[in-house]
């Protein structure tokens, strides 16, 4: 594991876009990517690289998480954010995208559907962000560490912070998410953390083993690196 601290968020985005391009060249690439504000610049830079267009048709995407009860067509859904920030920009076909349906009538079967896809198409590259409470995907503090996807109760922190993705107040009670061990089982994982607002949770992740945060379950792996900008790393960069 490496903690790489970059001077700016822009440099973090450049490095991640480079990793995405590198892993797109793998045989049978399967990406699992977080939605949200942190990775937006990385996706923009990746999509703007003319060299990827010839290779992107071999790419498959698998879902990390989704809000339960929110349709993928809704603004604020994890699917819609990724579609806006990446899928539409690189012109992925629907057949290339395997995504959780948060409105599925049987969510257990929906979990099993995604788990079967991953079993048949192992994830080659994952990009994760972290929540303000240290969550990964929608694995909240206190969630069990699973090697399969599941439906989880959302923490009050996540329910509150997630309102920024919706135009009007939206009831969010549960999420559907890959398990932490599924994420860790990816061939390559980058955890991106940027901005001063994340500095406190970054300090807890790397200096407080008693915090028991989901992000801490990704520490110690040779294939998992953390990419931080100087603002997010301001409490740890001297260590």
What this model shows, in words?
By secondary structure, the chain is α/β, with parallel strands linked by helices. Helices cover 29% and strands 16% of the residues. The strands form 2 sheets. A 7-stranded parallel sheet has the order 1-10-9-6-2-3-5, sandwiched between helices. Strands 4-8-7 form a 3-stranded antiparallel sheet, covered by helices on one side. The longest helix is centred in the first third of the chain and has 16 residues, at 9-24. The two termini are 15 Å apart. The mean pLDDT is 96.
Which characteristics define this entry?
alpha/beta; seven-stranded parallel sheet; 239 residues
Largest sheet: 7 strands, parallel
Shape: globular
Strand coverage percent: 15-25%
Gyration radius, in Å? 17 Å
- Order of adjacent strands in the largest pleated sheet: 1-10-9-6-2-3-5
**Number of continuous helical runs:** 7
Number of strands: 10
- Assembly type of the chains comes to single chain
Q: Assign the structural class, choosing from mainly alpha, mainly beta, alpha/beta, alpha+beta, or little secondary structure.
A: alpha/beta
Order of helices and strands: EHEHEEHEHEEHEHEHE
Distance between the termini: 15 Å
Q: Residue share in helices?
A: 25-40%
Mean pLDDT: 96
Low-confidence stretches: none
């Amino acid at each position: 594991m490496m903690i790489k601290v970059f001077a700016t968020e822009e440099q973090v985005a450049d490095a991640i876009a480079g990793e995405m391009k590198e892993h797109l060249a793998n045989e049978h690439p399967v990406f699992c990517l977080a939605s949200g504000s942190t990775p937006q610049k990385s996706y923009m830079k990746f999509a703007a690289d003319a060299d990827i267009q010839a290779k992107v048709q071999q790419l498959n995407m698998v879902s990390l998480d989704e809000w339960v009860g929110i349709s993928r067509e809704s603004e604020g859904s994890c699917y819609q954010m990724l579609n806006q920030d990446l899928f539409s920009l690189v012109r992925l076909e629907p057949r290339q995208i395997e995504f959780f349906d948060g409105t599925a009538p049987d969510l257990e079967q929906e979990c099993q559907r995604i788990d079967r896809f991953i079993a048949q198409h192992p994830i080659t590259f994952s990009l994760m962000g972290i929540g303000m409470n240290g969550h990964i995907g929608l694995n909240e503090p206190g969630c069990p560490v699973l090697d399969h996807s599941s439906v989880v109760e959302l923490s009050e922190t996540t329910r509150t912070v997630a309102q920024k993705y919706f135009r009007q107040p939206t009831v969010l009670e549960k999420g559907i998410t890959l398990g932490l061990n599924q994420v860790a089982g990816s061939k390559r994982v980058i955890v991106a953390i940027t901005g001063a607002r994340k500095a406190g949770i970054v300090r807890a992740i790397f200096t407080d083993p008693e915090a028991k945060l989901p992000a801490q379950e990704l520490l110690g792996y040779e294939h998992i690196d953390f990419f931080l900008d100087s603002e997010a790393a301001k409490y740890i960069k001297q260590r």
